[in-house]
Amino acid sequence: MEGPASAGTYALVTEQMTALLEGCPGPIAAMASAAALLKDTFDHFSWVGFYLPEEDGSLTVGPYQGPLACIRLPAGKGVCGAAAASARTMVVPDVHAFPGHIACDARSRSEIVVPLVMDGRLLAVLDVDSHLPDAFGDADRKGLEAVATRLSRSWTR
Ligand code: SME
To answer: Which runs of consecutive H residues, i.e. helices, occur in the chain?
Structure first.
């Protein structure tokens, strides 16, 4: 879809996610479907995917769409590590200005990372990159948080 993300488009995406999650057999299928839906819907997303926490606090890549990405991210490092450690959404308008940003794709200019949390436990982080600077606005934050909440609620194993 062309143009900036709108709340209306996210409302449709969230509806589609709800439908997809009905009868979804587990988190891998759910994350893979979410990544495909988001990547195909928004032209300003260059990479969409999930990182999953390991016992030592590092993150391992999960289902994603886009160019090949880093497989492991060290504990607490980068935008994903910061979102995982704080369990808060991170919006980074200029990745070059973010200390410790991990550049899996040198073309990335901005990034948003939304944690998936259930009962205080970090399940995963949803990471979206863009080749455009300052690509993520309020609609993206709210919309991606709604997607993350739905995924967290349906997490079965
Ligand atoms: N840029 C991320 C690493 C993951 S890639 O964007 C897919 C970070 O700094 O955590």
So the answer is: 7-21, 27-41, 78-86, 138-153
The verdict on residue 34 lying in a domain is yes
CATH value at residue 137 = 3.30.450.40
Q: Is the CB of 104 under 6 A from ligand 1?
A: yes
3-36: pLDDT as tens digits? 467 899 999 999 999 999 998 889 999 999 999 9
Tens of pLDDT, residues 87-107: 999 999 999 999 999 999 999
Query: Which atom of ligand 1 is nearest to 51's Cα?
Result: 4
Determine if ligand 1 sits within 6 Å of the CB of residue 129: yes
Domain coverage including residue 39:
7-153
Cα distance between residue 147 and residue 49, in whole Å: 12
Asked if residue 80 is part of any domain, the answer here is: yes
Please tell me the total count of domains within the chain. Answer: 1
d(CA 154, CA 157): 9
| 2 Cα–ligand 1 center, Å | 24
pTM for this model (two decimals)? 0.95
